[in-house]
Amino acid sequence: MIDQAKLxxxxxxxxxxxxSLSNLSEKELRKLRSDIDVLLPRGGLDGLNLExxxxxxxxxxxxxxxEVLTDPDCPAxxxxxxxxxxxxxxxxxxxxxxxxxxxxxxxxxxxxxxxxIATLPESVKDEFFAEYEKLAEAQGATV
Length: 143
Known about the structure:
By secondary structure, the chain is an all-alpha fold. It contains 5 helices and no strands.
């Protein structure tokens, strides 16, 4: 459900006709998305797109960095902190991409293994899976 209390506190963005989103800057579009997300109901972790959340965070931090770097009154330590946060968020994105590539590779290996097993005689398949389940259980993995 939409949070009606939060919605009531908001001032209308437009009286008659919505402005074209194509005329807004990236910063304005991200702010608008953030404002919309506040009004939408929170879902569970299963409905959360972690990759998109991380990308959104990266763009937000990059925007903050751009503001900080152009602000002559911003102390050097805050500039350094912002640069460090950009680097940390970028590293998380890289790690996520590497994990996803590894997972995809493992899926392909698993598919090839299952295809190879499918060509074996039934008695060999049964013996293989019995041993496989026993070894998996010993390692704490359920099959």
